[in-house]
Amino acid sequence: MKTYAHYINAVPVKGTSGRFADVFNPSTGEVSAQVPLANVSEVENAIAAAQKAFPAWSATSVLSRSRIMTRFTALLYKYQAEMAEMVSLEHGKIIEDAMGSVLRGIEVAEFSCGITQLQKGEFSDNVAGGIDIYSMRKPLGVVVGITPFNFPAMIPLWMATMAIATGNTVVLKPSEKDPACPLRIAEIFSEAGGPKGVFNVINGDKEAVDALLHDSRVKAVSFVGSTPIAQYVYETATKNGKRCQAMGGAKNHMVILPDADLESVANALMGAAFGSAGERCMAISVGLCVGDEVADRLIELLTPRIKALKIGTSLEKNLEMGPLVTAEHREKVMNYIQMGVDEGADLIVDGRGFSLKGHEKGYFLGGSLFDHVTKDMSSYKEEIFGPVLQLMRVQNFEEAMALASDHQYGNGTSIFTANGAAARTYADQVEVGMVGINVPIPVPLAFHSFGGWKDSAFGDHNQFGMEAVRFYTKVKTVTSRWSKETIEADFSIPTLK
Ligand code: NAD
Question: What is the domain class of 2-248+456-478 according to CATH?
């Protein structure tokens, strides 16, 4: 059986802690590999490699960094299909979806190639006689990325590309559930001519994360995962003097107004709720139907389609849904379905009975649909992160917006309507970080930025886009005087004329 290594100083390094975790193929339920779980001294070795590489990398000209990112991007495109297969095999998402998710990561690498323009400073000429002021964006040092299981290519690429392009060196701690692709990405960086020690990968669990959060050589931590861990990482990292951005869980609402085209809404909901088996932080998990007619008609449209979802092993073509990531996660989702039933919601379609012929040990679930979900239910308040769509019935637009705004999570939301004024009011006023108007999954492109509000994100900066340039750099401002005039003594605060 395959045993993964860490990747330190541009070479694979065997795990020495003696602790390993199983990596599964969710389509078959078989263990496909083992991943080492690093101890403190292994984490320290990865940090030391990054620390050693930092002076030279941060002094590398911005044009050279841009050229390496350009070669890296070209190779990422070359290996896109190989990486997608790795994602699909260990995560379980269908292969077409895996290809798309890799692409969304490559797009951030592509954006980072423009670092010559993105990291430019500011210059004010002649603010007083012979005096100019200029500001520079300097890299921070060793920065850490800690990533979740559900996007093992895209999220490591969000973090590593922007951190490296801005002149930092990286230690990435990917999810222990699907480490193949993050390790491959670091190797590809070396193939692109990235210097050794600039991009390191350490595999592990809480022990590795804690070692990273407590090491004073680490200057910043970018985290994406569930809210309780995001909060813990944010509090621990900032208490230890590090810059931190920590993205957490989600419960994304779609508001459906009576004037919306319900055929389009049903199509949009199928992909947004059941794509990637609902294991997306931008999945739509709640449909807010304004009026009973909307709810009744949507149930009519959705029910047969959910029952007929094309489910199979992740590498098969033309499917709609693969398995969930682990048996444990599948169990958790099934418990939420039972919780919904016990709390009194109407289970219109129950996906728990689904089993794939020939793959009975795979972690498959069918799609589930609930109606009459209410805001006091725990199955509504908490994130399910599976192929479960909950419909709620509300009287009007204001009630729908209040539900989306009042929920503890505020990652994404969308509104489907033909009414421009309602859509604009919703986008303007809803307390959520990313909004779609007649767009079900409003994940911004690489040249904007990604981030939720409330318990979906802790810290001040979003992922990628200019927000990432700000997160991974600190500003230095220089005031310089070149003048023939003699400097005169002045005991009051300098006020330039
Ligand atoms: P998770 O929180 O279990 O794990 C995320 C990372 O934290 C992993 O690298 C894991 O090894 C590490 N970790 C786990 N337990 C830890 C602990 N006790 N102490 C320290 N580190 C620990 O999340 P997951 O299950 O891998 O991913 C799914 C979650 O991620 C969902 O909640 C989803 O909404 C969220 N997510 C959020 C976004 C976003 O941008 N907001 C994007 C993708 C996923």
Answer: alpha beta
Closest ligand 1 atom to 229 CA: 2
Architecture (CATH level 2) of domain 252-437: 3-Layer(aba) Sandwich (3.40)
Give 457's contacts (C-beta < 8 A, 6+ positions apart). Answer: 230, 245, 246, 247, 248, 411, 433, 451
459 lines ligand 1 (CB under 6 A): no
- Specify the ligand 1 atom closest to the Cα of 147: 9
What distance in angstroms lies between residue 441's CA and the mean position of ligand 1's atoms? 20
What atom in ligand 1 is closest to the CA of residue 228?
2
Show which residues are catalytic.
281
The pTM assigned to this predicted structure is 0.98
Q: Is 411 in the pocket of ligand 1 (CB under 6 A)?
A: yes
The residue extents of the domains of the chain are 2-248+456-478, 252-437
pLDDT tens per residue across span 218-258: 999 999 999 999 999 999 999 999 999 999 999 999 999 99
On average, the pLDDT of the chain sits at 97
Residues 191-217 have pLDDT tens digits of 999 999 999 999 999 999 999 999 999
> What are 406's two structure tokens?
């009042």
Q: Which two tokens stand for residue 218?
A: 């680490």
Q: What φ, ψ does residue 414 adopt, rounded to 5°? A: -145, 160
3 state DSSP class of 211 = helix
383 lines ligand 1 (CB under 6 A): yes
